[in-house]
Amino acid sequence: MLKLDATVEPNTKLYNALMLAYMGCGDPRQALIFWDDIIHSREGPTYSSIQIALRACGDAPFGERQARDIWSRLKRFDIRVTREIHAAYIGALAGQALFDACIELINNAKKEAGLTPDVLMLGTFHNSLPDAKQEAMKHWAAEQYPAVWAEVQKLSKRNKMSSSGYFSNGIVYNVGTDIRA
Fold first, then answer.
1. Helix (H, G, I), strand (E, B) or coil at 136
2. Could you tell me if 67 and 93 are in contact, meaning their C-beta atoms sit under 8 angstroms apart?
3. Contact 170/138 with Cβ under 8 angstroms?
4. How far out from the chain centre does Cα 162 lie?
């Protein structure tokens, strides 16, 4: 419908909102189609766009491929990686159950991006993992980063909801990863 209205000129902010809307409806594939529109637009992506796209990658089938592509473009074009984007990339890989890759990213955060592991990184890692891997993550975090993990555990939490709308056995910590278009 949007393409039929000649008076509306889509911009990155609109595409960001559409990505968030489709992700909210459980359709990360469609959200990533809007990401393609953003990267081919004159305006290009914003930091919010990158963060939203990486979040969609965590939920999309085979999303790690697109997440790695986004990450390699950030590195290739020497774009500054913020704490939020780094955490979003960890979340994208964790959503695809790539536990070891996430551990490597967190352990190398200082060297690669000048970031120290924090509540956002560990919380996003935990929240994005499938339920079956959350217990292993908790043990790893408590062993490797006990002070940071203790801070994560102090945060409010809720039961994890599956894509079908049912509550699962996992929990989600409120690490403040809300994104605005």
1. helix
2. yes
3. no
4. 16
The pLDDT of residue 175 is 72
Distance CA 78, CA 89 (A): 16
Say which residue the tokens 């529109």 belong to: 37
Cβ-based burial of 54 (10 A; exposed 0-12, middle 13-18, buried ≥19): buried
Dihedrals phi, psi of 129, to nearest 5 degrees: -70, 150
Q: What is the pLDDT of residue 179?
A: 73
Mean per-residue pLDDT for 48-64?
A: 96
The pLDDT tens digits of the residues spanning 61-120 come to 999 999 999 999 999 999 999 999 999 999 999 999 999 999 999 999 999 889 999 999
Tokens of 39: 């990267």
